[in-house]
Every structure is written in structure tokens, then in C-alpha cells.
Amino acid sequence: MAAREAKARIKINKLLEESGWRFFDDASGKANIVLEPNVKLTKAGIDAMGENFESAHNGFIDFLLLDAQSHPLIVLEAKAEDKNPLIGKEQARGYAKSQNCRFVILSNGNLHYFWDLEQGNPHIITRFPSPDSIKGYQRFQPNPHRLITEIVSKDYIALTQMPGYANEAGWKSEAERPVFAAKNRLRFLRDYQKRAVQALQSAVAEGKSRFLFEMATGTGKTLTAAAVIKLFLRTGNAQRVLFLVDRLELEDQANKAFVAYLKNDYTSVIYKERRDEWRKAEIVVTTVQSLLFNDKYQCLFSPTDFDLVISDEAHRSIGGNARAVFEYFVGYKLGLTATPKDYLKQFDSKKSNTRDPRELERRLLLDTYRTFGCESGEPTFRYSLLDGVREGFLVNPLVVDARSDITTQLLSDKGYAVAVVDDDGKEATESFYQKDFEKKFFSEATNRLFCETFMRNALRDPISGETGKSIVFAVSQNHAAKLTQILNELADAFFPSKYQSDFAVQVTSLIPEAQQFTINFANNNLLGSANFEENYRTSKARVCVTVGMMTTGYDCPDILNLAMMRPIFSPQDFVQIKGRGTRKHDFLEQLFDPVMKQQLGKQEKTRFKLFDFFANCEYFEEKFNYDEVLKLPQPQSGEKSELPPLPPSGTFQYGGADTLAAIGEHQIGERGMKIDRMFFNKFEEQAQSDIALKTLVENAQWDQAADYVHRHLFDKPQAFFSLETLRRAAGVDRHLSLRELLEKVFGLIPGFKSKDELLEDEFRKLLLDLSPEELEQHVDAIVALKNYFKAYASDGHLRYIIDQGKLTELNVNPNFNMTDFRAVPAAWRNRIPEYVKNYLPLDQFK
Question: What cellular component terms from Gene Ontology apply here (predicted)?
Fold first, then answer.
């Protein structure tokens, strides 16, 4: 077993070198690592330490890391793999003080802690800070007292209102604002937003460094976050802030908000790969997915690069291995969420099962509260949808519960029964349920009924009389295309000569410029504007049909209709979809004719319609007070109401004979054959020369880029490129994703990680998902846990043995035997398989 694991000294040396520390002078600069005095700094002296520090006194050794002037900067206390790194804490403190060092790293090669002696307790890290990063962090002298005593008044942030961000969280009405604010279009913190910031100050005074704001959609979480950012930067308690979003389209939205809120004081940028602008900015905005992919957060940043990390929609962006990004950085942490834990009040955890979608939601919410130091279930600050409605800042939906004959059967316990012919040619019955809609069960008639019902009953725009701006949520991209076509056909009948197939627009990830469509829709210029009234600015396109792009955090306050033309099983998704309509809005702000304004009078949004075609509200609430129940229109005479027949399986069977002519074996080395390497180079050249593909990659439009490669580069007669042939040509011992290939081709990553390197990275993420108490309890079993983790993730036969409970087969399993299994703490024997199946891309390890 020892041969499988590099020992502590080897691992620590590698981690130091990866982060820019040097044992010897080289082209990069002078050596900046000194060992304790009794070890001579030569290659032989380093080797003499032993691979696990067995020869060092007390089983550990000190590394002294130096700055550019060769002054002591960090004490690294190295321990043997089977020792808890924290055991050497006090000795490291004493040595650090004797060397006038502020920073300590405690490591056993697997588990590492970074400790700022002036800032409290050690924090777990997965990568050592670089020399440049720690030097910048050394200049950082936070002062919590200034943060606690800073006066946060209503005008702490006062700014000119942004076009397209009308009433996201600024004021209740024109009358509410002072005259000078109305003239200058200023907006201020609302009382509850000010209370949120003050609650954070109180938490800091209690010694806390993690905070959670639970604020309903439409109550201005971004504005509140801007106030928190200003508080930290202004009081010197942060030098740089990382703002994490969970959707690509929210990057631009958040950045624009911060530019407007804080442009007079601080610089905000969206982080893009291979660009160093982030180093010059105080606020960096990016998606958690972009940092998580290929572990870029570790490769491109040091743990000390950000002093405050804010996770927008925290319940989404810290789940599972994504939490590693959040935990990677030391410093203060703030989570923002619109999903209250109370939403699962009907869920009985004692009767839970893994098939209940609420079980996953419950875990995510509990993890969210635990991550932000709110184990009691009470966030740092809470402001609910009901609070917002009661105080006049938000509006509740008018729910339209509409069910057809077919959806009623799909929703029933028996499902919709269809006569089919089985493999033996016998007649049989197959039942379909709501989860099968537009996946296994297709009905053109049902989709048309949905769209007709929506068109007849949607709220109209109060100024122009056209269908109010709406979002329709579909099952899939293909379903979205169908609905878009039907809606555009119906628009011709409802509004003759007004639209040219631009009433409804599909906005999904495979649509070019889909992200820009969401922005244009919010800014009222999607495919044009002022279609009915020339002095009224509103989007010509009235309906965006999407799957999931316009849910979390999307700001469009003049939305009047939301339609769930799909079943929804996630409470978070349901809350987010409903939240797209809760913002208040004054439609007169879009009207530029003063005479019409005077004639029309007050035109504020007081409600929105939520069309529910799959009893989603009933699913999430035991009893629901429906405001409106509609009977769906019946098919016209002559139309077929029955379902189309199920499509054939579409298989082909070759019936001829085949023989083996010759056979031979030759083992190819890691670099592969020259022709393979040339093959990969040819693909690189072809991809790099394709301007359209290059543009998609530069804009991080990965779904569109993958689709483009499949259509234009793969399986062509001149080369027959495919994922499998390129993987073999690249000489990698695992499956590669198409995105990885493109990132390598366009220089976004230096190379492909091996299977073992990926598993090491994934195991570090698992460690970051643990509480300090769990780590303390199992620190002596880290090596055993890692062996189990790697074996289970990479060995399909072992997964079968564990999952089926056939443990006796471990006695003859060569890669992971019964002795290995017994070394794993009992609590982890099921937990690791569960984590692997939930969060690891197992296809990559084949």
C-alpha cells in the first residue's frame, strides 16, 4: 500500500514548488526556502529528511519561507502523514514569533492549514499561497473595530439609476423619493437593506467571520452586497472582493450593478481567463463553474488573493465539490440566498428517502446554513417575500392552475397508459407520468393547448395593450423550440400583421447570443421596441422561451406573465421561477409622451400571472388557495385528440459473416504514436484557424462551441476527428471532455491532467466539504480515506462490489482489498460512494 502514496515530504516539496517557492537558485530567482538549522540545504540534505520525516526530531521539520529580500515570511510546520498538522501549532507559533513571522502553514502533505497569527484561527487550504500573494496579504492590516463602528446610513450608497434596472430595489414609488433625488434619479438603501448590513456588523462584533443573508427575490441582494463590499473596502478590512455567481448571464448583470453602485470609489471587473485585469480591481465577478472547471481556482489564484468572498445564490454555488472554490480562499465569507429553509416545512426528514427531490434540497439548505456559521437555522439577516409584499416592495402572483385531460392523467398515480408491442411481439401497456413529458411522452395537442391558454389569458401591457412581457419555462431545448414556433403561429392570429415570427424567442444555451437576448429583453430592445406605441419603449419580442437561463437572479421588473409548461421538482427552482415576477414596476417610466402620461395616470404593476400547467404549486404546498382555475380550450372539430404513436426504436442488424485475418500486440508508450500526435496537432491547427469557433471559445459559450465542433469538425472525410481518436492522440489515461480539448487547443490550460492528478484534486474538494470537527475526528485516517476515494471513483468493479454489498469479494480484489476497507472509518464507507456518485464526472476516470 505504501507504494501507492507519495509521502509527506515529497508532497510538501511539490506543493511548495507549484506555488512558486524555490529550494535552489534558478532562472526565476534566488532560493526562498530555508530549512531548520540542523538540516543542510543541499539535494542530499533534503533527501536525508526521509520521505515522511521519520529521521527528523519529533517527527516534523520546519521550513522557513523568505520574501524577495530574504527576510522570513512564513513558517511551514511539516508533519508526518499519520499526524494531525494542528499538533505542531504552538511550536510553530513560537518559532514564527522568534523569526518575526506573521504567517504559519501547518501540513502533513494531505491536509494543510494557513494561519495568520494576527487574525485568529488556522484555515484549511488546498494550495500554498504564492510569494507574491502572501507579500500583498502581509501589507493588508484589517481593523474589525472600524468595520463594526462604521456608520451605515440610508445614503451609504446613493447613485444615478441605471437604465434597465428600474425598480430592482431602490424605491417604492416616485412619491417616496425626495425632490432632489427625483431630479437626479438617485436611489438609496431601504431600511431593511440597511438593517442587513448592520446585522453583519453585529455578527463581526461577536467574533464571526461568516454571514448569511436570506432575502426574497426582488429585494435587492446585489445592492445590499454592494453596501457590504463598500463597508469592507472603506474600513480597510478587505483589499479585494470575489463575487461568485452561478450563471454565466449573471456575470454582466452583477458587474454593471457594481460599476453603477461603486464606480466613484472602486473598480469592478468580470474575470476572464488569461487576463490579469483582476489584479487591478477591488471587485472581481465570475461564475463558480468557470473557476471549478479544471480546478482553475487553484491554478490561477492563491488562497490569500481575496479577503471577502460573496456567494450569490449560495445554496446553488456551494453544493458538493463547488464548495471547494468558496472554501479555497481565506477571509470573510458572505452567502446570499432567496430560498428560505422554511419552504420545506411540509418535509418530514424522518420519512425521507433518496428518491424524494426534497431530500437533496434539504441537504443543500442545511449545508448552506452550516457553511455560513448558522447551524441554528437562523441566518444573519432574513427578509422574506411576505415581508416585501406586506411593506409594499413586492407583489404576489395570480396563480393560473390549468390542466388538460392528458396532463391530469400524467399527474395521476396510474399515469397515462399507452398500448404498445413488447420485444416478444405481444401487446402490453406502458404508463407515463409528468416527469416523462417531452422526454419519453410527446403530445403536439397538449403543447398547443398550453400556448392557446396562455395567449387567451395572459395579462396585457397596461400602456400598449399587447401581451405583457413573459417568460415560458420548457422541459428541454427541443421543447422550447416547439413552444416558440406555436406561440409565433398563434401571435399571427391574435395580432394580425404585428409580428414576423418575433413575438416569441427561444433563449437557451445552444442559441447564439442567447445571453445577449436576456439583457436586451430586460432593456426592452429584444428584436426591436415600440411595436404598438411609438412613444413607449418595450421589447417587440414579448415572450422568452427558456429552460433554465432566466431563473436565478434575472432582473426584469416589467414581467407580467410566467408560464411553467413543465413539471418542476426542485423547491429552489420553483421559488426562483416565481421570483422573476415579484418585483414592482411603474410602466410610465417607459413612456415618453407627457400628454399620455397625464391622461393614463398611475400605471404600477400590482400583480403578475403564474401559469401552472403541471400542478407545481400543489406539489409544493399541501393546500393552495388558487386565485383562478381555467378550463383548457377543447380541440377544434376535426382535430385528433389522441396521442401520436410511439416512434420506432430505429435499430439496424447486420446479418453477414466476418472472420479474423491476423492478430498481433504492441504496447504504445505514454506519448503515443507519432501519427497520433500529428493527428492531434492537425486538429489544433484546424480549430485555431476557425474564426467562428475561436469567437465562441473567447466568449465562453461552451455549449455552442461543442455543438459547432460536432457539426463542422468531427467525422469529416478529410480527418474523421472524434472525441475518442483525439483522446488517444493526446496520450491521456482517461476520457477527455470536448471542453477540455478546446481549452487546451486555445491555450486556456497548459495540458491535460492525468487520472491520478484529477483524483487528488477531487479528494481535496471533499476535504473542504468537511466541518473542522469532522476533520479533527478523522485526520489520522486521511490516507485510508483517499485510497478508498480513488479506488471507488476509478474502478467500476469495486463500485459494483461496494454498491451490492458483496464485501467478501474484496479478499481477492487486487486494487483495494479487505484490509484497505477496514482502515476506512465506518461512517465513511457509504459517505464516500454517495459523494463520488453525486459530484464526480465518473466518465473522466474510465
Answer: cytosol
Across the beta sheet with 123-125, the strand order is 33-35, 60-66, 72-79, 103-107, 112-116, 123-125
Q: What's the confidence (pLDDT) of residue 621?
A: 61
Taking the alpha carbons at both ends of the chain, their separation in whole angstroms is: 22
Query: How far apart, in Å, are the Cα atoms of 368 and each of 43, 620, 771, 812?
Result: 47, 21, 12, 42
Which domains are present in the chain? 2-134 (3.90.1570.30), 208-390 (3.40.50.300), 397-631 (3.40.50.300), 674-745 (no CATH), 755-845 (no CATH)
C-alpha 36/C-alpha 39 separation (Å) is: 6
Query: Which residues have a Cβ under 8 Å from the Cβ of 836 and sit 6 or more positions away?
Result: 789, 792, 793, 842
Grid cell locating 614: 403541471
pLDDT of residue 124: 83
Closest-CA residue to 768 (of 80, 112, 81, 210): 112
Helix intervals (H) in 414-504: 444-457, 477-494
Residues paired with 428 in a beta bridge: 420
What is the three-class DSSP state of 37? Answer: coil
- For the chain, helix, strand, coil in percent to 5 are 45, 15, 40
What is the pLDDT, as a whole number, of residue 364?
52
Q: What does each C-alpha distance from 638 to 193, 577, 635, 663 come to in angstroms?
A: 58, 37, 8, 65
Q: What number of CA atoms fall less than 13 Å from residue 816's CA on the CB side? A: 24
| Residues with pLDDT less than 50, the chain | 1-6, 38-40, 48, 50, 52-60, 160-185, 341-358, 360, 622-627, 635-676
What pLDDT does 309 receive? 92
